[in-house]
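Final report, Chapter 2: Outcomes

The project's central promise was a pipeline that accepts a single protein chain and returns its three-dimensional structure in a standardized token representation, suitable for archiving and comparison. That pipeline is now operational. To close this chapter, we reproduce one record exactly as it appears in the project archive, with the input sequence first and the structure output second.
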Amino acid sequence: FENKYARPFFMLEALFERNPEIVPFARQLAKYEKEFWHMTMVAQVYETVIGNLFLKKFIHERDLPFFDVGTLGAFLHDIGKLGIDPTSIENSLSIMDFHSGSKNSGRDLRPPNIRAAQNLHPLVGGYMIRYMKEAGLISPKKADIVSSSVFSHHETNNNDFKTSYPRSSRRFEIENPKQTLVDILVQLIDIGVSMREDRAYRSKLDFKVVEHELNKHLENEELLKHPERATGLIEDGQNELRKILIEEVLSAINSSDLIIRDRPNLSKINWSGFMEVGDGENENLLIEGLIATVWQNHQERLLRSFEKNLNSDYKHASRSG
């Protein structure tokens, strides 16, 4: 790898060594270069933030294994996009068909409606992780930490952001402060990395705009109203939790800013030297089976969320990660 890309690829290599069960999914995700690189950079920034929080003695050493699993959640936060075709939801691996035999039969899913479909990916991804756990493909402990971050990475308890997994009655009561902290970090980093990326509809946004957006996102975060409950942080970190989180996320994004926007040509990477070459056909069948299970068991929920997304006013077009 070129020197400037070495760090994120070393991070991925270590992530795959610790979590070999996700390699088949990573191989399939790598076919979507923009999405794969975005997920890689969210994981890279997350790992940097956790490392800095530990070095500055804000995180207890005993809690590092928990936060380490959060890196996996940061990388897989968009795994649900494997179940949402980027151009038409009815072609999503020929499984999630919003036309045939559904009450949405005949619905026009061209833009902007396709955006409502794409915003189902946190739901699809979170359920995929849960069914991976049921199938024995991922340990229960990992699955619980990762699925929470996947489900919640577009979630908020105000009306300004698109909310695809509204768990306000549980999530915002801070039933698990360490998990909540991991989820908040994945959310903030996803927003920040997305805003620093060039998108088809806009150029990267200024750091001041990013900082404003991150602060706005935390306005109603319950954990910040009760920082003493942030059990993953040492007391000094609890006292200035909001300030610390924003500063560390912005600093980590800034240190990776060049490669966030200048991704490598993934098609030229020798994946066989990076992770084992797999059976593409069987991997596709595995992923299709997971998506089919999600669709069959949660069709009503997905359709309801799709309708809600259609009726929503997406005020924050700057963030679509």
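Archive annotation: Residues 19 and 217 are 31 Å apart (CA to CA).
This record, like all others produced under the grant, will remain available to the consortium after the project formally closes.
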